[in-house]
Amino acid sequence: MMDSRLRCMIDASVIINLHHGGVLKDITGLPFDFLTPDIVLAEHTNPPPDEVLRSGIRAGELPDVLVQQAAVLAPQNRKLSIQDIFAFVLARHHRCLLVTDDGRLRTLAGRQVTECHGTLWIMGEMVERGVLNPAAACTALGIMLVKNARLPAAECEERQKAWREMQDSTLTANRE
Questions:
Q1: pTM beyond cutoff 0.85
Q2: Which of 54, 138, 144, 173 is spaced 20 to 30 A from 23 at the CA atom?
Q3: Is residue 10 pLDDT above 60, yes or no?
Protein backbone atom coordinates (compact mmCIF):
# COMPACT_ATOMS: atom_id res chain seq x y z
CA MET A 1 0.00 0.00 0.00
CA MET A 2 1.34 3.41 -0.97
CA ASP A 3 1.87 5.89 1.86
CA SER A 4 -0.41 8.87 1.26
CA ARG A 5 1.38 11.22 3.64
CA LEU A 6 2.91 14.29 2.01
CA ARG A 7 6.70 14.26 2.29
CA CYS A 8 8.29 17.57 3.25
CA MET A 9 11.94 18.63 3.45
CA ILE A 10 12.00 21.22 6.23
CA ASP A 11 14.92 23.60 6.65
CA ALA A 12 16.42 25.28 9.70
CA SER A 13 14.56 28.59 9.25
CA VAL A 14 11.16 26.94 9.60
CA ILE A 15 12.27 24.64 12.43
CA ILE A 16 13.57 27.67 14.36
CA ASN A 17 10.41 29.72 13.73
CA LEU A 18 8.12 26.89 14.85
CA HIS A 19 10.30 26.33 17.93
CA HIS A 20 10.22 30.04 18.82
CA GLY A 21 6.44 30.04 18.43
CA GLY A 22 6.18 27.04 20.76
CA VAL A 23 4.48 24.89 18.11
CA LEU A 24 7.30 22.68 16.80
CA LYS A 25 5.95 19.76 18.84
CA ASP A 26 2.53 20.22 17.20
CA ILE A 27 3.67 19.33 13.68
CA THR A 28 3.29 15.67 14.65
CA GLY A 29 -0.45 16.30 14.28
CA LEU A 30 -0.06 16.95 10.56
CA PRO A 31 -0.35 14.08 8.09
CA PHE A 32 3.10 14.87 6.69
CA ASP A 33 6.46 13.15 6.86
CA PHE A 34 9.10 15.74 7.72
CA LEU A 35 12.75 15.27 6.86
CA THR A 36 15.71 17.60 7.34
CA PRO A 37 19.34 17.18 6.29
CA ASP A 38 21.44 15.56 9.03
CA ILE A 39 23.87 18.50 8.76
CA VAL A 40 21.05 20.83 9.89
CA LEU A 41 20.46 18.72 13.00
CA ALA A 42 24.18 18.47 13.72
CA GLU A 43 24.45 22.26 13.87
CA HIS A 44 21.23 22.97 15.79
CA THR A 45 21.51 24.22 19.33
CA ASN A 46 18.23 26.13 19.58
CA PRO A 47 16.22 23.96 19.38
CA PRO A 48 18.54 21.08 20.25
CA PRO A 49 18.59 18.06 17.93
CA ASP A 50 16.71 15.81 20.38
CA GLU A 51 13.79 18.26 20.47
CA VAL A 52 13.70 18.40 16.66
CA LEU A 53 13.66 14.60 16.48
CA ARG A 54 10.92 14.39 19.16
CA SER A 55 8.78 16.64 16.95
CA GLY A 56 8.73 13.85 14.38
CA ILE A 57 11.27 15.34 11.99
CA ARG A 58 13.66 12.70 10.70
CA ALA A 59 17.27 13.31 9.73
CA GLY A 60 18.18 12.61 6.13
CA GLU A 61 21.68 11.68 5.10
CA LEU A 62 23.11 12.70 1.76
CA PRO A 63 24.73 9.85 -0.14
CA ASP A 64 27.91 10.75 -2.03
CA VAL A 65 26.05 11.37 -5.29
CA LEU A 66 23.90 14.04 -3.59
CA VAL A 67 26.92 15.61 -1.90
CA GLN A 68 28.42 15.89 -5.40
CA GLN A 69 25.23 17.56 -6.67
CA ALA A 70 25.40 20.00 -3.77
CA ALA A 71 29.06 20.72 -4.58
CA VAL A 72 28.06 21.61 -8.16
CA LEU A 73 25.23 23.91 -6.98
CA ALA A 74 27.21 25.67 -4.23
CA PRO A 75 29.42 27.90 -6.47
CA GLN A 76 26.36 28.91 -8.51
CA ASN A 77 24.46 29.84 -5.33
CA ARG A 78 27.11 31.45 -3.14
CA LYS A 79 24.59 33.28 -0.97
CA LEU A 80 23.00 30.01 0.19
CA SER A 81 24.44 28.05 3.10
CA ILE A 82 25.56 24.49 2.49
CA GLN A 83 22.69 23.40 4.78
CA ASP A 84 20.21 25.13 2.46
CA ILE A 85 21.74 23.52 -0.60
CA PHE A 86 21.64 20.12 1.09
CA ALA A 87 17.94 20.65 1.92
CA PHE A 88 17.24 21.53 -1.70
CA VAL A 89 19.19 18.56 -3.10
CA LEU A 90 17.45 16.16 -0.69
CA ALA A 91 14.01 17.60 -1.52
CA ARG A 92 14.67 17.23 -5.23
CA HIS A 93 16.05 13.69 -4.79
CA HIS A 94 13.10 12.51 -2.68
CA ARG A 95 10.61 14.48 -4.82
CA CYS A 96 9.20 16.14 -1.77
CA LEU A 97 7.93 19.57 -0.98
CA LEU A 98 10.55 22.02 0.30
CA VAL A 99 9.54 23.98 3.40
CA THR A 100 11.73 27.05 3.87
CA ASP A 101 11.48 30.74 4.69
CA ASP A 102 14.74 31.55 2.90
CA GLY A 103 13.97 33.71 -0.13
CA ARG A 104 17.08 32.68 -2.03
CA LEU A 105 16.35 29.00 -1.47
CA ARG A 106 12.77 29.54 -2.65
CA THR A 107 14.14 31.17 -5.82
CA LEU A 108 16.43 28.19 -6.48
CA ALA A 109 13.53 25.80 -5.86
CA GLY A 110 11.34 27.77 -8.27
CA ARG A 111 13.98 27.63 -10.99
CA GLN A 112 14.29 23.87 -10.49
CA VAL A 113 10.50 23.32 -10.38
CA THR A 114 10.47 22.13 -6.78
CA GLU A 115 7.27 22.97 -4.87
CA CYS A 116 8.03 25.24 -1.95
CA HIS A 117 6.17 26.60 1.09
CA GLY A 118 7.15 28.11 4.45
CA THR A 119 6.25 28.66 8.09
CA LEU A 120 2.98 30.42 7.29
CA TRP A 121 1.84 27.48 5.17
CA ILE A 122 2.65 25.04 8.00
CA MET A 123 0.76 27.25 10.46
CA GLY A 124 -2.21 27.45 8.08
CA GLU A 125 -2.23 23.66 7.71
CA MET A 126 -2.19 23.26 11.50
CA VAL A 127 -5.22 25.56 11.87
CA GLU A 128 -7.10 24.03 8.92
CA ARG A 129 -6.58 20.49 10.22
CA GLY A 130 -7.45 21.36 13.83
CA VAL A 131 -3.94 20.77 15.17
CA LEU A 132 -3.92 24.35 16.51
CA ASN A 133 -6.88 26.54 17.25
CA PRO A 134 -6.83 29.96 15.56
CA ALA A 135 -6.04 31.81 18.81
CA ALA A 136 -3.01 29.60 19.51
CA ALA A 137 -1.78 30.06 15.93
CA CYS A 138 -2.20 33.84 16.20
CA THR A 139 -0.24 33.89 19.46
CA ALA A 140 2.50 31.62 18.11
CA LEU A 141 2.94 33.77 15.00
CA GLY A 142 3.10 36.89 17.15
CA ILE A 143 5.89 35.33 19.24
CA MET A 144 7.78 34.32 16.08
CA LEU A 145 7.62 37.90 14.84
CA VAL A 146 8.82 39.28 18.19
CA LYS A 147 11.75 36.85 17.92
CA ASN A 148 12.64 38.33 14.51
CA ALA A 149 11.24 35.68 12.18
CA ARG A 150 11.81 36.83 8.61
CA LEU A 151 8.28 36.44 7.34
CA PRO A 152 6.30 38.66 4.94
CA ALA A 153 4.66 41.31 7.14
CA ALA A 154 1.53 41.77 5.03
CA GLU A 155 0.84 38.04 4.87
CA CYS A 156 1.41 37.71 8.63
CA GLU A 157 -1.13 40.47 9.27
CA GLU A 158 -3.64 38.81 6.93
CA ARG A 159 -3.23 35.44 8.64
CA GLN A 160 -3.53 36.89 12.13
CA LYS A 161 -6.64 38.85 11.14
CA ALA A 162 -8.23 35.75 9.59
CA TRP A 163 -7.38 33.62 12.63
CA ARG A 164 -8.82 36.25 15.01
CA GLU A 165 -12.02 36.32 12.93
CA MET A 166 -12.19 32.51 12.99
CA GLN A 167 -11.76 32.54 16.75
CA ASP A 168 -14.39 35.27 17.17
CA SER A 169 -16.91 33.36 15.05
CA THR A 170 -16.23 30.19 17.06
CA LEU A 171 -16.77 32.08 20.33
CA THR A 172 -19.98 33.62 18.99
CA ALA A 173 -21.28 30.22 17.83
CA ASN A 174 -20.46 28.68 21.21
CA ARG A 175 -22.45 31.39 23.03
CA GLU A 176 -25.59 30.82 20.93
A1: yes
A2: 173
A3: yes
